[in-house]
Amino acid sequence: MLAANPAKMTKGWRKLLVSCLAITLSCSGIWAPLTPNTSAATGAPMVVSSLDGPVTQEEINSFKQYILSTSVGLPVSNIGNDFVYGPSGQNVEAMGYMYEISGDQAILDRMISFSENMLSARNNPVTGRVLWNGNRELAWPNKKVGEVNSDGLLIDGYSGSENGDVIGHIAYSAKLILQNKSLWNKVVPYGNGLLYGETYLQRAKSYITELDKSMDTYMIPNFVKPDTLRQYWPNDTRWSTTGSGAPNSAIPWNQQMMINNGFMRLAECHELLADDPTRVDLYDRIVQASIDWFTASLQPYQVQGHDVYKWWYVADYFGKVEDADGVHAANDIMGMTRAYDRGKYGVTQDTLIKLANTIRYVISTGTGNFYCKVDGLPTSCTLTNLWSEYLHISPYTTDSTVYKLLANPYYMSTVLTSPIYFARIMWVKDHTSWTRQVDADLSPTWEAESYASRTGYFIRGACDTCSKGAFMQSPEEGAASLTYDLNVTHGGSVYLHVLGSSSGAAEGSLQVSVDEGTEVHLPVAVGSTWGWTTAELPFSLTDGFHEVNIKSQGNSARLDKLVLSKSPTPPIESLLPKLTDIQVNGVSIASFSPSTYTYAVALPLGTKVIPTISAVSDHIVEIAQPQQLFGTAVVTVKDRQDPYLQAKYEVQLTGYPIYGEVPDRFITYPIQAVSASAGYHASFPPASAIDGDLTTRYAAKGITHWIQFDLGVVKPVRSVLLAFLKGDVDKYNFDLQVSEDGVSWKTVYSGKSSGKTAGLEIFQFGKENARYVKYNGKGNSKDTWNNINEIYIGGDSDVTAPATSDDVGSGWHKDTQTIHLTATDGGSGVVNTYYSVNGSTFTEGTTIQIDSEGTTELRYYSVDGAGNEESPKSVMLQLDRSGPRITTSVSMAVYVTDTIHLDFGITDALSGVANQTIQLDGKPIDSPYVIEPMSLTLGNHLVSVTATDRAGNTTTQHYDLQVHMDVDHLDEVLAVAKQKGWIKNEGIYRGLMSLVNLIQRASKQELNPKLNALQALIQAQKGKFIEETTAAQLLDWLRALQN
After folding, report:
1. Secondary structure, 3-state, 185-238
2. Rounded to the nearest 5 degrees, what angle is found at the Cα of 1027, between the Cα atoms of 1024 and 1029?
3. Which helix (H) or strand (E) holds 955?
4. Per-residue pLDDT tens over the stretch 523-540
5. pLDDT digits (tens, 9 = 90+) for 351-368
6. Which of 777, 802, 661 is CA-nearest to residue 718?
7. What values do phi and psi take at 382, rounded to 5?
8. Which of 500, 512, 749, 1040 has the fewest CB atoms inside 10 Å of its own CB, making it the most exposed?
9. How far apart are CA 495 and CA 492, in angstroms?
10. Whole-number Å distance between alpha carbons of 764 and 273
């Protein structure tokens, strides 16, 4: 939760408000009761349990069923700004808020599917719409083709600031993925139809890459000034055709906040990836320029003694005061709270409080309505409610009235069927549930940025290693304080310990007091390294409510965690007493780690005796055993020397109870597929009977309906477990049949359910080998509906471990490899698959990406539902992405008489060289790559060397071979020709050599006549005693030698 002041509401006010909402809106016909019943297929209205206090699971579940229902359609196009502040864009935001509150992965998966549809609907750079600048930009046009404005101007080429919000919504999905590393290598469950990657991490990186392209190619070049980084409409006359603001004029504030949304969330994504600090810096500087510009434009004044602001629609234009209705001021205010939460742009809580004051004392009419402008004028224009974006200001003000005004009955009339209106109420609740319950005997810890109200200039900073990723920092100078509301039990003399650091070289100095009493010095660790310190004196706390105030004394003290303890020793992790093992019925928890304090242990179906929890430690161990089968055990470890120095572990036992006698060695088999006879209710499909959720169901009306379950392979079946709708009231009549082939069936049970349990009930029969189990429904004791909440198929216990295989190809590979692990288990089914790369810690997952060159060892194993663990397997994957290296010591300047050896050094450090080819002037040369004398013409020749390694990487190098001829080599030319038999007469040869001898001794002036004489002799003997081709070649060379 964010560090902000609680918008406290008394229990009486909360009850009154909810009651008034229910009465007022029901009577007016605007809003049904808070928990109405509607068809689940179209999404039952969501449930608001209360307007303050923690978000409840009922509220989360109501949102989840609604957002997953047919009431909420997938995005199609951005026409009408559907992806911006229309339903699709706002639904993505709503799912993000609710995922952050609940951690429910189904909500995140739905959010990802929305984001992908939005990203895929972006303008196609090849076939898409041509925009105002004549290009098919990577943007999201929001006008219909052929749309004209009120002036008759064709504006379908417009696409502007709204793109920033689309980018921000999609990047929100990527950010939430990146914040949860446990998801990174998991496969997204609904497939990869849009080709953004199989795993969550691949999806997030794909989104970021594509969104950066939109920023780089369209948003930054057209809407950001390169010198000031301020946001303006394009300085291009063609922009006039869009019907938007004038070219080269400032972009309105609300639209700048849209653009900022995209830059901020992409910056957060790149920070989480730590992949592009230069880009993060650019994005943050663009946002900084916008926030500074907006803050400087706010005009402060006072109303009824309260500081408020007035501002205008756009910078440098004072003719239009900002609108309070619609999305204008709503976006301005939400954008400022987002910038404050980012912690990088210098936005202060003081600014946010003044914006909140403006809502209460200026925009609010005082009678439950609101004025249309942020200055409250004219008073003749009023609104019944403001947009949901305003709610973002609620946690940052001490005035709870602001929240009450915004969440008025008219606003709440839309909440139950508007995901974003609902989610923002939940967001406020989650950020204003501040009172901390403190049991002083248990050394409670809380995060400095949570449960606190702020005054002065304490700021919230991001920190990867901090608890919940954030800390609180006091200013270098000036007064500031944090206030924590505590409800204490088992009070006494307690010490306040803090985990902190200081951004300066000196100790961060703080003062702490309780209930405005004596201030006590609270030092903070010196320097940037986090460390524990303790207030110099303890405090006496009685049971009940107390207020702890921490006041800044300068030096930028930073706080991460706070602890109230009866022990004078701070809870330094290395000093805490630890367990060395936790066991459930004598079996150690496989994932146990001394520094992990919470565990969930799923009990096998059929467990009837409450398990016993035991633990091992060198210190004092106290165990509160679970009091029911699916209860929680609390293990407290106390230091032998200091019993108030403690660590607490929790073990939650989970599972489903079974009605009826469960046989020994009972197990269940995974159901691979389900089918049913036609006519079942569309809202209650067969898949709901095997989804592991007893709140969903299959339903079909009639006495001839059947539903069939496929185990995938034949297994020894001995029982079926069924949970029926209202099974504790109604008795269901049915037959059970089994089959090995789906053709020949055997009835193994005919009868009725007990009518005594709404949970799972077991129906046993003799062991039958079967792949298929069929339920033939005959209705129930009340009607002919067949309602199955869940089914499990049981057999004998599994003692065989799963078998896991990989798809690693043999040999060397040149591309990044994505490895898939496939596990099978013929008994209880595969539960988990784990892998390790090069000896790293085993991680759960079935998809692994290998991009490191060299030999990588992949080890893996799987565990089945019975706990059988496969012995780890190992496979080597060889990756070589670099081509061979080619070097040469061969001279590339030769004479026609030289014998040329084309020797090149070809090496490959990884996979090794597979083959090589050498070409001369485009024609291959055979090994051993030797060029005989006088076989090349004078001039340049191209030598091309190509080498391929065993992974398939290829390297090609080109060299220029220069062939020369001079007078000094004439004798060698004749000698070679004589040796080759091209000069056939000894006398002719001697005559030629004599002339060459004269030529080589001739002066420059004498050279040409002598060369002419040699030419004449060769010409005379051409085709006679000198082979004709050789003679022609010699004549060419002699002509080249003439000066």
Report:
1. CCECCCCCCCCCCCEHHHHHHHHHHHHHHHHHHHHHHHHECCCCCCEECCCCHH
2. 130
3. strand 954-964
4. 888 777 888 889 999 999
5. 999 999 999 999 999 888
6. 661
7. -135, 160
8. 1040
9. 10
10. 54
